[in-house]
Structures are given as C-alpha cells and as structure tokens.
C-alpha cells in the first residue's frame, strides 16, 4: 500500500468518525487581567514596596475590595483566601474535618499568639488565611517577588497572570491533563465545536471556579427537594433516608405485622400459637 | 357485599324484561352519538379531530407532519399567552451516537441540574398538595462506601456536600437494550439512531408499562394537566422532546434533544457548577466522553440487568 492510499484510508476513517471536538486552544479564553478593573498592573502601586518574605496572615489593605465582572454581568469579589476569625487558628474554633486539619497546618507555620500580640489583633479580628497547600506553600512560591506583575514558576520563570493554569499544573499534573482534555472543570456551549458558528463555547480556567488561595469548594444550600408523590404528609428526615415515606404508604393500607417498631428497632414476629419450628 | 357484574346485567326477554330490540338499538345509537360529540367540536383547546386522527411520528408524510407542526404551534400559542413556538423535527446527526458521563467525585448534590431541566423541558410544576410535580433528574444522597440505592436519601435538605455522603444524580440512561421500549404496546417510545430514547406524546396511550419496566425510575407520568407559567415556558421545542405535553401521557429525559441535535450541550450540563457532567459523541475518538471511557474508572448502574445504557458514572 502506497503512502497516498494510506492517507486516503486514514482520512476516510477520520471523516467517518463524525464531527470532532476541536482543540482546546480553539476555545477562546477570557483574559483575567481585563477583569481586574483598574488594579493591574500591580507594580503601579507596589513597585517601590520592599518584599517582605516573612510568613504572615493577609489583611485587606486596598481602599476598595478587588472585584471582577463575568460575562453575565455578575460581580465577584477577589479573595485572598478564606476569611476567618484569627481566634479559630488558636485551636478552639470548633472546626472539624479537613478544614480543621488545614488550619492546624496554617497555624503551624507561625506562632499565632505571638503574631496577634505583634499586630495588636484580638481573637475576633478577621484575617485572610491561605488554606492551600497547608504549611508547604507560601506567597512567593507562586508570586514573583522581583516583578509583581507576574507569577513565578517553580523553575523561576516568569508567568503571566493570564496563563495561571500552567502554575496550577505544576503540582496538579493529572488534573491539568484532564482539564486539557475537557474532563475536569466546566466547558459550556457546544459539544460539537463544528456547529458552533458564533464561537460561544468556553472552557473555564482553574481560577474561575477555585479561589487560588482557598481552592476547596465551600458548601452550598441545595435547590428545593422534590415533592413526595404519594405521601406528602409524612416527610422523611435525613436520618430516615426516605424510609418513612414508604411506611406512610403502608399506613394507608393498615398496619403490617412485620413492620419494624420504633421502640424495639426490630421486626415483630407474628404469633405462632405455641407452635414450635 | 360487592355486587358481581352478573347481578347488574339486564335480564333477557324471556324473564319478563321490558327492554325490546328497537329500544335497545335506539339507546346504543344515542350513546354513540353523544360519544362522537367532542370530535365534532371545533374548539382546539377541547378536542381536535386532527389530533385524534394523527398518525405515528414515523408514519406521517412530510406534508402531514408540516400540518401537525403548524397545528401544534397554533395550539401552544393560544395556550401560552400568544407566545410564538417553534416545534422542531431535527433528525439525528450522521455519525453521532450520544453518551453521557457523570463524575461522582465532583457532584456536590446541589440539584441545580434537576431545576434547569424542569425549565428547559417544560415540565409540570405541580403543587405541594397533589405532589404531582415532575422532575426528570433525581439526586440521591448516598453514604460513602455504599452503593445501596434503597438506603439513599432523595429528600435531603441541608447544606451540601455532606462530608459523609456522595451524590448520585439519576435520570434516563438511554439504554441500547431499553426495557421501556420493548414493553410499549403501541410503539409510542423508541430509540433514535443517535441513541436518544424518545416518546411520541400524541401516540402514547398512558398505560405506564414503560414506567414499570424502567429499572432506573426515569419515566414520569402526567397525572394532571401540566401547568407551566407563561413567563417560564420554553418556546424552542422539539416534537419528540420538550413541547408541552397533555395529561395522561408519559415523558422522560431526551438529552435535551432540542439542544443536542443542534450541537449544544444539555441544560443539566450547562448549569452544573462543578463540571461533573460530560456529554458528547461516543463515536468520535477525539471527544471528551471517549477520553473518559478510555481513561477513567467508569461504571454502569445496574450493569447486571444488561440494559447497555448510554449513561456512565465515573470517579477520579
């Protein structure tokens, strides 16, 4: 088989496989820098500021909070991290689970009590906490100390804020590969890019879903629960896992002798009139 | 004591009954005449002779289908405050077989998919009292480490995600060996060439056999006349998809056929805040869905039933 024939067969196979999704790079990306209304470049204000390499908590020092507006016109606050009462970091904030572990790691990075004394902070004062990477990560691992308008890769190269996903990909390699293939994160618009005549398909960048300084998703209040169809009277609870609903249906038919009782927690066996089995 | 049918039957002439042959025929003729009255009415909202005599979707000629579409669009316009409807009949795209994948590790159970689906697909909003609301997607809260569907909770009402739970949204799996289409006595539901299982609402007789046959509890029945607020009705519809339904017919997820056959993503995917939902053409080796099936830990719900679904769950 000659190369020409091979090419024709290959082209035929590709054609027969239907429309393709197109390359990731064809998806237009929104510029992060354009979203930071009036605050970029950072060097306008920070050029003469000496870099402080000492670990510390962050506090809002801009005159007005940093905001950005998405394509739908919604305004979002640029957050430096998770806003917490500094008292929580002293170990009696009542936090549990991953968040607690995260805070313990953050607290291990510096002496919180000493920091409060130095800064004149009380336990109820709020600070922004970098809840990303535990004690292993600090500002200057990602931000370029020599040029505030850029990020910094692990090998020391400068990186534009617009290309921040490559910074994330340094540590989160498998997720970055998934994102490149469109499997991780959101891609809105057309599943078939060839039919996307108006070029509306968008793939969101890492930082458009995750706050870089506190990337874990926060809890949300879910939409309204569905209305039980057959028994709107007896509402199941979270503990019952919907079992009460079924029991409510049975109640309409009269009590069943083998239904579990609330007091004993086990099924009541029917009487056998003294008969032994 | 319950009367048996034989107790109420008229006695024959030999037993002294006053019913004679002529009187009986008069009664039958009068009853038939009264039964036909609705057909003779011309009010489109009450009953349509054209609708009564309408053929199956695939038995209609092009001209007949155009007339049906025009009639439906006029009916919907009258019903929904003079809004202009478009009832599309876009055919399956060549070389396309749809598949859906859902990332259980990312879903947070916010139910936004279920609500977006209701709006996009003109589902009956229902009422609290009757409990006749229709939602194609049911999000199950499952305990971590368990796949016991019977112990799942549909009615959770607390901030999500719960740290001890994971969330499994269930909807129509568009099975390639669909039990629901096999049991339909009138072939009102079938699988299209692109894999979407659809219902011809005008051909459905409302027997609900398909609902009973579906192992994923994916079909919904209109027990009441569907109520959709005028301002929320979606006028971009498909004949086999989200056009307004009547009381007494079955409906289900169609992968948003009115969107996906134009290349768009389904509404549930568009709204998902975590990007847990992925959709595409499984025949395309470059597609996202193909990448998931080739590279992720994919599983099929109730695989042992052999339904061969087009809907996959995966973890990462």
What kind of oligomer do you see?
A: heterodimer
- Pick out the low-confidence regions of chain B: 1-16, 38-44
In helices, the fraction of residues of chain A equals 25-40%
Taken from the alpha-carbon principal axes, the silhouette of chain B is: globular
Write the layout of secondary structure elements.
The complex is a heterodimer of chains A (277) and B (316).
Chain A: H1 3-16, H2 32-35, H3 43-46, E1 67-69, E2 75-77, E3 82-85, H4 97-109, H5 112-119, E4 126-129, H6 139-142, E5 151-152, E6 158-159, H7 164-171, H8 173-180, E7 187-188, E8 202-203, H9 206-209, H10 243-252
Antiparallel strand pairs in A: 1-2, 3-4, 5-6, 7-8
Chain B: H1 5-8, H2 21-40, H3 49-52, H4 62-79, E1 86-88, E2 98-103, H5 112-120, E3 138-143, E4 165-170, H6 179-183, E5 189-191, E6 197-199, H7 209-213, E7 219-221, E8 236-238, E9 250-252, H8 257-260, H9 267-271, E10 277-281, H10 288-295, E11 297-299, E12 311-315
Parallel strand pairs in B: 1-8, 2-12
Antiparallel strand pairs in B: 2-10, 3-4, 5-6, 7-9, 11-12
């Amino acid at each position: 088989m000659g190369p020409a024939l091979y090419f024709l067969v290959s082209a035929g196979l590709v054609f027969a496989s239907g429309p393709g999704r197109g390359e990731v790079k064809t998806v237009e990306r929104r510029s992060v820098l354009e979203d930071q209304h009036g605050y970029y470049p950072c060097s306008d204000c920070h050029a003469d500021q000496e870099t402080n390499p000492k670990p510390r908590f962050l506090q809002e020092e801009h005159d007005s909070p940093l905001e950005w507006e998405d394509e739908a016109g919604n305004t979002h606050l640029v957050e430096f991290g998770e806003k917490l009462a500094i008292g929580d970091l002293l170990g009696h904030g009542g936090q549990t689970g991953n968040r607690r572990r995260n805070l313990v790691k953050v607290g291990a990075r510096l002496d919180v009590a000493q920091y409060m004394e130095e800064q004149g902070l009380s336990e109820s004062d709020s600070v922004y906490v970098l809840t990303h990477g535990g004690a292993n990560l600090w500002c200057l691992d990602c931000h370029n100390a020599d040029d505030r308008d850029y990020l910094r890769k692990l090998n020391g190269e400068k990186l534009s804020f617009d290309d921040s996903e490559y910074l994330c990909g340094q540590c989160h390699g498998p997720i970055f590969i998934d994102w490149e293939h469109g499997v991780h994160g959101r891609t809105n618009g057309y599943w078939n890019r060839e039919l996307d005549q108006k070029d509306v398909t968008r793939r969101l960048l890492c930082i458009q879903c995750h706050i870089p300084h506190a990337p874990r998703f926060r809890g949300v209040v879910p939409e309204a629960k569905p209305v039980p169809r057959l028994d709107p009277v007896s509402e199941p609870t979270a503990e019952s896992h919907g079992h009460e609903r079924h029991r409510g249906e049975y109640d309409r038919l009269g009590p069943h002798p083998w239904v579990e009782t609330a007091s004993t927690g086990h099924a009541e066996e029917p009487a056998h009139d003294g008969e032994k089995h | 004591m319950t009367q048996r049918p034989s107790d109420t039957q008229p006695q024959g002439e030999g037993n002294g009954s006053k019913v004679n042959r002529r009187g009986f025929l008069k009664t039958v003729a009068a009853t038939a005449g009264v039964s036909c009255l609705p057909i003779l009415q011309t009010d489109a909202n009450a009953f349509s002779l054209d609708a009564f005599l309408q053929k199956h979707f695939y038995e209609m000629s092009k001209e007949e289908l155009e007339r049906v579409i025009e009639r439906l669009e006029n009916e919907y316009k009258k019903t929904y405050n003079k809004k202009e409807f478009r009832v599309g009949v876009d055919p399956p795209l060549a070389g396309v077989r749809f598949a859906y994948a859902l990332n259980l590790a990312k879903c947070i159970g916010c139910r936004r998919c279920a609500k977006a689906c209701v709006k996009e697909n003109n589902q009956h909003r229902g009422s609290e009292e009757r409990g006749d609301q229709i939602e194609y997607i049911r999000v199950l809260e499952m305990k971590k480490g368990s796949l016991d569907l019977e112990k799942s909770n549909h009615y959770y009402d607390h901030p999500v995600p719960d740290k001890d739970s994971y969330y499994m949204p269930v909807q129509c799996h568009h099975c390639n060996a669909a039990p629901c289409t096999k049991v339909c006595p009138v072939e009102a539901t079938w699988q299209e060439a692109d894999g979407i299982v659809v219902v011809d609402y005008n051909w459905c007789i409302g027997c609900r056999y398909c609902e009973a046959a579906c192992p994923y509890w994916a079909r919904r029945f209109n027990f009441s006349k569907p109520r959709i607020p005028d301002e929320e009705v979606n006028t971009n519809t498909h004949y086999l998809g989200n056009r307004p339904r009547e009381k007494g017919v079955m409906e289900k997820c169609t992968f948003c056929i009115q969107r996906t056959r134009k290349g768009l993503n389904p509404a549930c995917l568009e709204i998902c805040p975590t990007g847990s939902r992925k959709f595409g053409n499984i025949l395309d080796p470059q597609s996202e869905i193909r990448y998931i099936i080739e590279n992720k830990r994919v599983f099929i719900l109730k695989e042992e039933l052999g339904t061969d679904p087009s809907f996959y769950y995966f973890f990462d």
